[in-house]
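Students often ask why we bother predicting the structure of a whole assembly rather than each chain alone. The short answer is interfaces. A chain on its own may look different once its partners are present, and contacts between molecules only exist in the joint model. In this exercise we take two input lines together and write out one structure for the complete complex. Read the inputs first and try to guess which parts will touch.
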Amino acid sequence: MKVVLRNPRREVELAGNRRVKDVLRELDILPETVLVIRDDELVTADQLVTDADTIELRPVMSGGAQ
Amino acid sequence: MKCRKCGGTAVLELRRHNAAFCADDFQEFFRNQVREAIRRHRMFTIDEPVLVAVSGGKDSLALWDVLIDEGYRTTGLYLDLGIFDYSVESRGKCEAFAAARGVPLMIKRVEEEVGAPVPVIKQVTRRPPCSGCGLSKRYLMNRAALEAGMPVVATGHNLDDEAATLFGSVMHWQMDSLPRQSPALASTHPKLVRRVKPLYRLSERETAAFAFLRRIDYIVDECPFAKGATSIAHKEILNRMEDASPGAKHNFLFGFLEKARPAFERAEAVVLNECVRCGQVTTGTLCAFCKLADQVKRSV
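Now the answer. The structure tokens for the assembled complex follow.
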């Protein structure tokens, strides 16, 4: 599967099917810090992602001047 | 995972609420949280015009979107910080949103108001860029609201922003900041408008999900100056705690607001004056914004 990451934008390839939560764990990303998007839809951590899928892990954190 | 309300397929899990929602029910949950914030803190009424400070990011545009749909009379305020392509893109997002929704947008350029854009202010002051940027934003938001005759400014600060600010204040025991940390700051001077944060009950991930589901075109990339900012480091720490113990951020912030803040509030006694130069409110004689503008003038 292809995993698209942002800030900076980059892509990671992972082999095999797995659940979203396992993808996040493998990439050391906390579930609270991203939206997981597949085919322009949000998916939850228990969803299975297949080898043929592309998912985007869109960061939700913003910061700086308050 | 099933939606707690309708049993349909969930699109978002909210561990701190031990719940998951489908797209429609999540949006209703989100709007209810905003309604509750406005009601609980009497932020504004349906008859009052509201100035919504927008940055082009997910939080402020999601807030504006909700307030428009709730029937509030809103005007957007975009402060152009002059941060290279980031400002060009974020301004474009705000203009496109305002045009699509048919709502007015005011634009103020920091370069015109202070004498230089944020990247130059950073060099001149030799302080973290967020310092001069935050100071300028607070000043210009208040002044713009006063000039436009609007009694209240709403900002898109979310639960994560507020928890991170509180964390920073507690780490340094900033006794002047703690009493001011509130979802709604009343006008304590005729030249200070009310400042409210209707998203304070919603996490950063929830505002991002709402903006995504509403198909709001927001700027996803971070401000180039936010990298390494203390507030980001604090958010990362809090997110680790949240992962280990869902609800940690909520409990930290809401516990403070309900139990601890009143004690700090009583300790605060600040005399407010009008700046001898610009007439805006300050605790001294010359306000921090005018001092910053002076410093920029001397160096540019």
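Check your guess against this: Chain B touches chain A through 45 residues (CB under 8 Å).
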